[in-house]
Design brief:
By secondary structure, this protein is an alpha/beta fold. The chain has 19 helices and seven strands. β2, α5 and β3 form a beta-alpha-beta unit. α11 crosses α12. It is globular and about 85 Å long.
Amino acid sequence: MQQPLAYKMRPRNLDEVVGQQHLVGPGKIIRRMVEAKMLSSMILYGPPGTGKTSIASAIAGSTNYAFRMLNAATDTKKDLQVVAEEAKMSGTVILLLDEVHRLDKTKQDFLLPHLESGRIIMIGATTENPYITINPAIRSRTQIFEVKPLTEEDIQVAVKNALTDKDRGLGNYPVKLDENALLHLSRATNGDLRSSLNALELATKSTPEENGKIHLTLSIIEECLQKKALTHDKDGDAHYDVISALQKSVRGSDVNAALHYLARLIEAGDLPIICRRLMVMGYEDIGLANPQAAARTVQAVQAAEKLGLPEARIPLADAVVDLCLSPKSNSAYVAVDAALADIQAGNVGEVPDHLRDSHYKGAAALNRGIGYQYPHNFENAWVDQQYLPDKIKNAEYYQPKATGKYEQALGQQYYRIKEWKKNPEN
């Protein structure tokens, strides 16, 4: 059976893992577990092609434990029994259990005692949020780690490794990969290394050799990825230019320009980028001026993700028109950045005693919670008391804008409370 390039290039140890350095880098949690020989069962969750199987394979390679792969949806309890028997014989088996969120109760009940004994170290892989989709009995016996989409740089490193590796990769093929083709490979798959390597392999093996070289151009990579580049410019900046132009057109309320740039991103097949950017705009640029527009954008994005392209263009267009013609406010975004700037500058201070947790024995002796006034016991559910630390007790971050009815109402309440503070008797 011919194995795909992505399978053959799986890392053999943690040092070969591309990306995910927050988990496998020096001093990070998974590397610590491997180096201390204190492995425990875990769940890796994140988008497809980002390295969940690779991390499991690298852990097995770094520990010399037997490594087995099963799928919770399609493999049976009998398959689990085979792994359990092997674990009894060899001592420990690392089991990569794909689609772990599909584990039914029968298989779960069989697996639990083996996880508790440590005979089977399960590495569950899922694209779903484990805090929502995975049974608490499994969740409580595992550590949960998020696997993040790979960066362009990560994918470029992996592509170059595949092109030079003569044992597992394409090192025996005389490939010349154009720089703009490499950029497209690293960008168009939105962090999915498997897709990038699959396209690279198809391009290499389907392109005739000429003058002793297999010349992979941007158009060849576009065809093998089935995603067009935004432009054929040399440095590839148009990818970011179009995304920037979309947001600035929405911010500037130019609906026709925004639809134009949306169409360019749709034509390039950049659905994840579009969805993320629209949600950012909903909260960054429209914000409190029209919170319902942000909520509708989230609904449109969810519909687009379920529909996929080309039908996804319809809810996406609805969202772009809605955001363009909505009143705009960045007040909350500016306010939280101002608060973060204070914190990063060291302007923090102690939480006032009357606001501290008072629900434990001995709290009163430490003056915790003493003097706190419960706002609901007062007229307008408001009482004048200090909430900020002494060091920044007069800080003001939020400045209301009057560009939408909702924030106008918030602003009226904000200034009303300021007046109450000045004249608490009124």
